[in-house]
Batch of 3 targets.
Target 1
Amino acid sequence: MGTADGHGFTLAAVQPVPNLNLELQTWHHPTGAVHYPLSAADPHCGFCVTFRTIPGDSTGLPHILEHLVLCGSARYPVRDPFFLMLRRSLQTFMNAMTGPDGTYYPFSSQVKKDFDNLLGIYLDAVFRPILNPLDFAQEGVRLEPTDGPAARPASPAGWAFKGVVYNEMKGAMGNADAQLYRHAGQVLVPGTPYRFNSGGEPADIPSLAYDDLVRFHTAHYNAANACFATYGDLDVAELHAKFAPYLADRPGVPIALPAPEGPHAAPTTATFPVPLQAGQDVRDVTIASLSWVTGDMRDLDDSLELELIDQLLLGHAGAPLRLAVESSGIGRAMAPSGASAYGADGTFAVGVKGLDPADGPRFEQLVLDTLDRLVAEGLPAADIEAALHQLELERRLITGDRFPFGLELALAATDAWQLGLDPIAVLDQDAAIARLRERALAPGWLAGALGARFVDNPHRALRAPHPDPDGNRRQDDEERARIDARVAALDAAGQAAALTQAAALEARQAEVDDVSVLPELRLADIPRELRWSEGRAADAGLEVFDAGTNGILHQVAALPL
């Protein structure tokens, strides 16, 4: 459309979404930033800014950077403005999340002044963070005396690695489920950055340097690599006036989404150790998962078909693949299963936990035999109809279970941006679902889809952890060896610098921040009246409410008892 707004943004498209009672706009900035306002007559407003953050190793750099940008900024130079604002806000959601290829900073509020306050905090945090080296030591990793900064260890045994993310990931990676997930990227898509642990491997985190983090922020947290998504009754020009100074400060180069893995020529089997405690049943730590790379998440028709197959095979207790696994006697329960993705690569997994380690091959054969049978016998048309109906309900149903509804839509828009898709196709899937229905009800569809995606697709892997009674001891020994090597590499000046840093960090943690620099709410900023939906009497005892329910009619019956 080419309409400029005076703040550098140009309106590229306006697309109504009637089922959601909103209008999607697309605005572009010369720096490369994009803004998707989801304009709706709703005072419950949401915001998210997303940066594509592709890891180059498993040091956890994107995860640690997420922590650091929330530790003070140019305009709000306090140690923890993010958590301090939790006590100065009526936010309905406020967080930050690091994924395998992106970092998200979302919040929502029903109070206009509160929304403006949080917007200022978030914009300054991500574009103008202080990135204090002491905060890197606190949030990331540091070498410090075990007994605190006042101690002067006489040997390497008196030193330890410490840090919020370091300790968080030691705990997070200590179970079979996490190990199974960690190895999925290494086995299924080893040629992509998804082979790395974006959260951080405890063995790799100590090799991260502060300067690496600063360079990563410059390369990734810039206008060319930023997507803004907002929802609600917001003035778009007012938002752009607030975005523009930050975008001008931080131009950059866009980061590309990793290319798909490409097909594998043969199936693989991968095993990896998980710690087994003394006296623990081996089945407590044993999981098996058979996974395929199948489909292109940049193709909405392809990704919807994969979701339909997920619903058909695993969607309920009588679904054929779930029933086969759960009635086989192999394992105690299903492990995480179904459709997911590594960037553009769609994946499908079937998992079981609590099995004898020797039953991995039996489990794999059971899954393959079940798929062969389904290709040969098919499923009743009524089952496919039911799965299509359930899929459509799941795509349309507004729950607000994870995020407030508007914020959920804003995050869907940023996820579309991550894949290079037009968000309108993700928000309004009527046409895509109609195309899927036509394909899925055609004779032979299921046999062809299962054959191409699974039976004749060698890009699959059986992953199974094996119990390791020495696992915990070996991990402790490996950590100790890394610490000893680091200490041995320090001369007297290096050890003195580590002690000085530990003392400085302790002093910084004891400081009392001047919270008066942070915005706050006053009673006058808060609406005096609660906002309730108002219905209309359509018949005796029947009241009708109009809302953006994505085309689903909800009926609630209240009976006097």
Note: The two ends are 58 Å apart (CA to CA).
Target 2
Amino acid sequence: TGQLSLRKINQVGQKAVSLGALNEIEKWQLQATLTSAGAGIESIRFSNIFETVDGKLAWTRYREVGGIKPLEDDLYLLGTAKTVQYQTPSGIKEAKVSILGASQIFINNQSLYLTSPEFWTLAAQDANNSATFEAYVIDASENKIATIRRKWTLDNKFSLVLEQTVTNHTADALKIRWIQYGPQSLIVDRSRYMDRRRFRFGWELSDEFDPNQAAQIQATDILFEYADAAKLESEPLWPSEEAVSEEFKLSWFASTNRYFALAVYPNIIGANNENRTFVDTVASIRSQTYSNNGEEYILTSLWSPEIIVPEGALCDFSMGIYAGPMTRTILDSDQPYAALNMRELVLYQMSSMCAFCTFQWLADLLAWILTFLDKNVVFDWGFAIIFLVLIVRGLLHPITKKSQINMQRFGKVMQKIKPEIEKLKEKYPNDAKRVQSEQMKLMQKYGVNPFQMLGCLPMFLQMPVWVALYALLYFMFDIRQEPAFFGVFQLFWEWPFLADLSASDHFFGEFDQPINFFFWNITGINVLPILMGAIFFVQQKYMSPQNMATTPEQESQQKIMRIMMVVMFPLMLYSAPSGLTLYILTSSTVGILESQRIRKHVENIDVNPRPEQQDSQRRKPKDKQGRAWADAMEARRKKVQNKAKKRNFKKRN
């Protein structure tokens, strides 16, 4: 074919092309503005999803009653084209990189760059539904060698179809490799408590392991956090070493942030009977980290395998695109997302390090319960969270009651025998083991043991719920910008207090720009964490018996624990989702009321020593922990007696 180049197109008169519309929310979910730079997407903005709660209220009011039209900037911007700088022999130059834009094409090992708008012409446009761009490869004699066509079509449910082909116009076969930009790193959420942008993959198992493709698409074990992807140098994002060794076949690739995903997948229509992989379109995915005007971002590129295109034939690199929220109401039921198992994009997980601690299965269960309560019982997310508190506290009530009764009795007994313990310390000042042994006998005499003191157990049992709920409220799109208690606080001059259960409570208003303070991204002054600390302080008065420490060290440890509960825990959750602080605050308040009722049953509790019995007839406690304690004490007593006998035998000899 000789030396190849791209034919330059006269760009005069070419206008910006937009698919969809922001003012027709009944018809379009988004607006994708196209650009001739790489024949890709300039920006993606949603028509009925908002950047902030204030923007949501303003647009809702405008659409209902009219008035001054709010700014389009209040509508959520999923992504924009990036301007990158690169070094050339003549100096540093800039180029616009559009979303999913064309990057390069290799024809018979000759590389042609496709990012410049001067090579693309708008060949066809169909209202707000589709647009077609074309570029032409020519030889030195300006004979047409190949036509590159990219047709964008917008669906009405967060999806686009990209039909892209390369047609061979020569009398010989052409060896072609296609490179285009893939999903870029998305915009960081404004009210983030942490940056959880990720790159996700779906893949099909190898033919050897699953020859009939009966298994669903896999998606859980391989992902890159943004920080990990930014550190990659020569290694590709895909395939990983595991994917190569196990012969996984790529099915879809997505860039996600807290709530949204930009994903590419095979252009299929049916549910099960079509190719679910990218084998002929994407052989590898590479990434590059850029920084521009203080903004750091990652651009990805999709590399096809080398393909031989016969004379007069074309090769197809088409794909589908999902640009929308990560919600299972769409990904679970709509095709082709269900067939590709793209519901796995919904991941209630704080990070790869804490994956096990997040209890994904528990977060899924809580999501189902909260959704059921909101849709069918209370019809409000705030009340649904409170009902969830009542369900969890009700299930834990038997354990809570038993533990608090044991705690109260243990505390009273320890106060009563404290003088005797002090006498033991004076009697055996240099024999700590003897003091401990005698103290154990004394506690056994009164029928108490530390195994029965399960005061913190209900809280520990709730910790998995708190962690899973934290992840759920942080990532669950359904609760994003949803107010508590039917938005009653927003009736007062649009007060932002509890206007968004996925963000901080903003009792004293919301800042125009978040403030970074140590590990926190503060978006307003919050009151719920402060109330939570006060509730913890009151809760300790009811649930923790006083003066239980028998040594200064124990007293110091208990004091530190009280300070951590009252100060550190609310401080750690200062910028957490208000739905979580509402849950913990409600749970602690219910716990205090529960403790008050339980204390009435233990006011006259018996703390007298149990009747002495013969060792062989001594009554053992009924509970398992008590029996274990008694057996341990009996074994220890016999061990001490045996040692004493051996010492006496040696002395006699």
Note: Confidence is low (pLDDT under 50) at residues 613-618, 649-653.
Target 3
Amino acid sequence: YWTVPDGYWKVYALYLTHDGGGREDYINMLDDASCALQIEAVYEPHYARYKELFGTVIAGFFSDEPCIGNAVGYDFDERVGHKDMPLPWSRYMPEMMRERLGDNWKDLLPVLWADLDHGRTDAKVREGYMDSVTRLVEKCFSYQLGDWCAAHGVQYIGHIVEDNGAHARLGSSMGHYFRSLAGQHMAGIDNIGGQVVIGGGDSVRPKGFSKPGDGEFYHYELGKLGSSHAHIDPRKGGRALCENFGAYGWNTGVRTMQYLADHFLARGINHFTPHAFSPKAFPDPDCPPHFYAHGENPQYRAFGTLVEYMNRVCHLISGGISLPDAAVLYHGESEWAGDYQQEKVVCRELLEHQIDFDIVPADLLGNLEAFDAYLEENALWIGGRPVQALVVPYSRYLPLTAARFIEKAEEAGFPVIFTEAVPDGVSDTSEAENARLIPALQACEAVPAGKLAEALSGFITRDITLSPAHRRMTVYHYRDEEGEDILLLLNEDPGEAFDGEVTVRATGRPALYDAKDNCLRPVESEVHGEETVLKLRVGPLEMAIVTFSAEEGDALKAPYRDLLPIPVEGFTVSRAEAKEYPHFRDPLPVESPINMGRIYPDFSGYYRYEVSVELPEGVKELTIGDCYEAAEVWVNGVRIGTRIAPPYRFDIASAAKEGVNTIVIEVATTLERKMRAMGDSGRPSLGGNPPVSPTGITGEVTVWCEQC
């Protein structure tokens, strides 16, 4: 019985239940005994049966999108305090909440569902609750599984749902990116279903199985989350994994896949799980493209070429250290506590100005030793790498660990820059300590996110600069275990080339590494003290890889200059489906390049182009202006090689001769047109569209020879 006082009241009834309406058949991520059921039901039986294969054939166990599961679906908006939803709980929570909030903690719990406008009190309750939840996820789930794997000679890997900032929320994700993967031996992310798309950093993806996709998050933050965790966590050993390519649809082939691989390589990802091979009968509607598709996919052989390329680049950026200029504070605790700015805005500003960085959690700032880090004068050293400044995206309230670090940073002369404004205070501490720490926060500079790169230039020595500026050039500077520098420069602009100078703080003999031909090529450069100026042209969607370890005796494969073009025309074009190959049919004369999809709108497979052409001596190269997708070339019966994306350039000097030459080009299409003809949209979760991608050779074929 309660006598209601005057005024407007809202009454909350809080209760514990196993039937809250979320994933009711799911383990409780906040309880170690519940999480142990997974080990008992899955891990232990595998070990009992296959223990002699552990650590050899069986590399480890993969957690694919584990979640808190207090809500069903993929809304990505399960922020505590902002949504009516059941909240996760366990037997450990009451004591943890009492320690964080005091004996009256139950009276404060309505703040987890409603904004009571109590300022710092609301922030303290929400931050305290989410901190407790994610600490239990870290201990009960992530470390328990990771420690079991380590004790049995295998690795624990995987990823959570990161989409649209969900990695710091409940529901389909785990509340805190870094804590949820703390027990794993690789840092993990995934890219599926059109998350990263060419030129798509400003676009919003159409709604499919979930909320509309946030192009800014996928392009500017996602890859850096994974590589940052690999860089800062000693347990990860520098290993960053991306599950890639899945659910992009049958219209996606190796041409797009190379960009998707380069996108993440240039952000420091050095391990990949290709998604997917399917053992189900063709066509399996689940998350195509399927690389083999029981022999139906013409892209399969070219996919092998792509994997060889990816392996070579991954090898280059493994085993050493990255060289970031700055650190960016992870926004998880700031989001829990109140108004905040996602770090994606900061990530974009830095990437577009070639300022490399690692995203770091407040846990690192509060426990430097655990992350092999220390603060020394004007630098924060993490895993043997100095960062020159800490950037803190706007938040109304900071966690105590971050605020105490900033106080120490000010004493050490290490610069801290806030974006937009200085915080109002600290979320999880007493009034007295909050008042003591505020002056240290107010002593820091605050700048708009759009002016961050300019402001940082006054505090740091830039590692890489471009002339002229090119906002879509993504750079990654790596130093291998032997101390030799490697530079990745990815031009992510789909239409504009970069042609200018790149200045990098590295010395040595630079050379361009061609990861497709596995050879070195010369690069024009000048050394100025501790810096090297490279003169480069990087075409649209191309990645230049520069190594500074070339030796004087290395035979650099020189590009040919001042060559004369000889157009090649008059091809006979035949075709074969993947399972018909190499038995081609329907020969058709084609004088000039044409989209073969206009002639055969429902055909997927291989097009074979054959021609005999009179050539002079001194022939060096063959180029194809454009084609869809992969091109394989033979000259006079000699296989030259495969190209999976522009530029389609082939060195044919060793096979060409003076006189009549036979040229054969085979082009592999995607399965898009065949699947459409079969009534399969190719992207059942997102809807389908009529085929728009061309097929076959669509650009001029040219042979290049030396001037006589």
Note: The radius of gyration is 28 Å.
